Known about the structure:
Blueprint: H1 2-33, H2 38-49, E1 79-80, E2 86-89, E3 95-102, E4 106-111, E5 114-117, H3 118-121, E6 122-128, E7 134-143, H4 145-148, E8 158-164, E9 169-176, E10 179-180, E11 209-219, E12 251-261
Amino acid sequence: MKSKTWLMIILALLVINSCAKRDQLSDLQVDADRNLSLVEARQHFEKVLAATKQPGKIASKAPRAHQHDENREHNHDKQPMWDAFQYRELSSGHQAVLTPLHRQGTYVQISDDKMVKFGFLNYMMMYKDTADNIITEWVQLKPSNKWFEAKTSRKYDGDIIVMNWDGKAQRIFRYEDGKVLNDSKRPKVAKQASITSDEPPGDWGDDAQCQIITFWIRYPGHVCSCADHTWEQRSICTCEQQGGIGPKRSRTVSVTIETCVETPPEGPIDGGEDNGSEGPPGGGR
């Protein structure tokens, strides 16, 4: 009788243990499904973002452009550099895809006499949320001079601006020696450029955190292929089909963007931990 009782207990424990293992495997499967792969990221970008890319006007509380209306499409004309992608572990433990961004002929001004290529400080981060939706963020670095001028690798100093793909700011983080500062330790950001906007001045309030970044964009010139054509060759001229434009010189214009958020949160960006061990997205320099 006792042997039967022990047998029943053992069988019951085996059933319970088996169910627990199935539940654990199920949880692991769900958890693994939230790890975004490069293939998924590229498919999502090409199907959703690249297909719907349209130049848009910079709206009220999105980044604001300085003077040059012809460059209102600035936020939309950027492409991921898939060959340089990395997997990044988020603070949630899940896997994200991070890749530098490229914008043709565009440089970021980092001091009065120094500029770097757009892709050096701009990244695309893609990851899955709890509902399994793919989230795309534009991550922009604004490093301090001491970080940028460092001759050896050092922990990140400066700001990290997290925006949605259209350029509307979601969060701004300030780092000092690799650690994020809370609101009470954030120095006020001094405005460094004249900003024009459709908004009334002072609309952001005293608690807003703002950053100003200047981009320089080079537009190539256009050489008319009809310049030396005779009247008889007019039928093969392409310039008239292009609106009658003639030779046009290349030009470089500046776009100054102000990015503001109302209440920056405390805590690190998703891509790193608040322990000073992480550099900026993409591994920094």
